[in-house]
Amino acid sequence: MTSEPAPPRSSLAGMDPLAAGQLRRSRLQRLRDASVRDAGEMVRRPEIPEPRPDRAQRLAADVGGFVQQTPERPIVMLEWREPIARELEGLAALPEPVDPARPFVLFDTETTGLGTGTGTVPFLVGIGKWDGHEFVTHQLLLPEQSDEGGYLDALEALIPPDAVLVSYNGRTFDWPLLVTRYRLHGRKPPAYAEHLDLLPLARALWRHRLPDARLASVESGVCGVQRDHDLAGALVPGRYLDYLRHGRGTLLRDVLAHNRQDIVSMALVLRVLSLELAPVATSGRSPRSVHPGDLGGLGRAYARKKRHQEALACFDAAMERLLEPRETQAFESIAMDRARTLTRMGQRTEAEGAWHAIALEGGRHAAWAWLHVAKHREHDGRDFAAALQATDRARALAERSRLFGQRVRHVERDLARRVPRLRRRLAAAAA
């Protein structure tokens, strides 16, 4: 017995209306069943443990911390103590001064990503504070993302309203990210008095002798800190996500060690700034161990803030260190900064003498220095003939550089304007 052939799928024309409706419904049901089956295959993901009441206790046991109860949810906290004395009085003399009498709160975050948007969660915040002659680091660890309300409560309790926040790139990343989390919970972020970010200072002071301005480079090259088996920052988000999947807090031990060392290193950098560098601005003296290039960088930082007297003290101290043994390139660069500072301070006679000394040295900045000598002789001394003599020396050096394929275009442009003007003024004075 043979069955009747199925009607063409492309058309239901000519069929009984009741049979055609049944056929449409059966096709639609088959499509629905297939889509449900396919969707079930597509949504298979690794199993994530459900939230458990004892999750915070398990995490605390895995990382060696304790459970901190908050008005909302429990979090995990760790506490460490280091014998680092609080000697911060010199910070009042920094290019961006801070009040050393205020409580200092050093902070650093570890996050689930590198953005500052709502999708990035700071799951670990390290807070460093001084307690007498001890430096105490508290680490706040988020057991689950649903515990964030309690996490923010505990963080706010560690930041007094008169605090000086200290961070390393925290002004543009860490703190804005924390502010975002508070606002997502409908709360105001913690109040504070001042914020000292160490990254701009590190770039100004130590970029001349370090490969980069990362905290790991600064702590090694300036503070003598050597990390053993440190976790790379790029691996931190993955460690926390693995912890959320598997519930093993031991995955976060390396993250905690990395964060703790960041906090301690910032404390050591503050002491270097306070005890070794900042005193130069007020007394003109610093330990002999301080690199002269660091003093030059500090002087330039003061100059950018128009604190010329402090800048001059730093440049003088740096040049004194560079005389024996003589480091020509560094000496010339700092000598130029010193001469510019004297000019800006209005000390014309001293400034002309400083430029003249650079010009007579005959280094790579000699042509430019001769132009500054000409400028002072023209405008301060009104000696147009002597100013022309200085431009002749600058032209000779510029022409020699051009013969060797190293044109000094800024000198040539200045000469093109200055020489005709000086000749006109000299002719007018002689008439």
Description:
The chain has 431 residues and is α/β, with parallel strands linked by helices. It contains 16 helices and seven strands. The chain has helices spanning 17-42, 55-63, 148-157, 170-184, 198-206, 215-221, 236-246, 253-277, 279-283, 292-304, 308-323, 328-344, 348-361, 366-379, 384-403, 409-430; strands spanning 66-68, 75-82, 104-111, 122-131, 134-141, 164-167, 194-197. Strands 1-2-5-4-3-6-7 form a seven-stranded mixed beta sheet, sandwiched between helices. The radius of gyration is 34 Å and the shape is elongated. The termini are far apart. Mean pLDDT is 87; it is low at 38-49.
What is the string of SSEs from the N terminus onward? Answer: HHEEEEEHEHEHHHHHHHHHHHH
If strands are numbered along the chain, what order do they take across the biggest sheet? 1-2-5-4-3-6-7
Number of beta strands: 7
The biggest beta sheet is recorded as: 7 strands, mixed
Which class best fits the helix and strand makeup?
alpha/beta
Average per-residue pLDDT, rounded, comes to 87
User: Count of DSSP helices?
Assistant: 16
Q: How much beta, percentage-wise?
A: 5-15%
What's the gyration radius in Å? 34 Å
Question: What general outline do the C-alpha atoms trace?
Answer: elongated
Roughly how many Å apart are the termini?
132 Å
Amount of helix: 40-55%
Low-pLDDT windows of residues = 38-49
